[in-house]
Amino acid sequence: MRADVRNALTHPYFHIGELPITPVFLFKTVLFLIGLGIVSGMVRRFLLHQALVRTSLDEGQRYAFAHIMGYVIYLFGLMVGLQLIGLNLNNLVLLGSAIGIGLGFGLQNIANNFVSGIILLMERPIRVGDRVEVGGTNGDVVRIGGRSTWVQTNDNVVIIIPNSEFINNRVTNWTANDRQVRFGIPLGVSYGSDPERVREVLMGVALSHPDVLKDPEPDLLFVRFGDSSLDFELRVWTITRVQWPLVLASELYYSMFRAFKENGIEIPFPQRDLHLKTGFPPIRVPGHEHGESGSPPE
What we know:
By secondary structure, the chain is an alpha+beta fold. The protein contains eight helices and ten strands.
């Protein structure tokens, strides 16, 4: 019985070159790949959380370097392991051709996303911590993986986006250069308001907010003469409220309302003027001319 089990485990079912492929060999290969993945992961985490934090690299650069090194170590270990078991890499041409056919049919999207992930880590159009907008999703990049990128929205929801979308589609990176971003806040006042006084009040409101930068300072644009109001746009710069522009706008609107009330500046509401004219000629109705009477049509 034991001899039969031993023979079943050591019997080669096929060969790659001169290398016999047995169940024992496959089991050892799986253990080796698992161990190699664990080692590369440990090296990646060590670089990311211990070694690189002492350098001048920012968070995105540390993340990219650690993950690229993890891929390099995994590939290097795989090549060394194949050489140690006596496998001639030239014999993998046939296996590589089969894998290429599989990629062409069933694994094309996975391969595309993996290559896109490598491009994202090497070219770094986006980095961990960046504020991005892609395909209608707006949030912070929290992870760039081999197949997908995780984007966390303001609702604390993580959207998993295939890496290929960041390569093939248009992406807005709000913090590509730095985290200093400008937001525009539209508003209107009544036609009876003095624009210079409005400017003075709104600049005071903006400069008094703790999250609005003093340099570059905010500015106010007189946009247009609207149907019912004088339309302005208050433009402010911020670093701390990049993730929450609506909250910043809400706080400024509250302050504007108080300031307008204190300074007698009116906030208009839509209105239309209707002019009625008299003196129209009488409308003649058939059957009622010259005092004639008639019954209404049935």
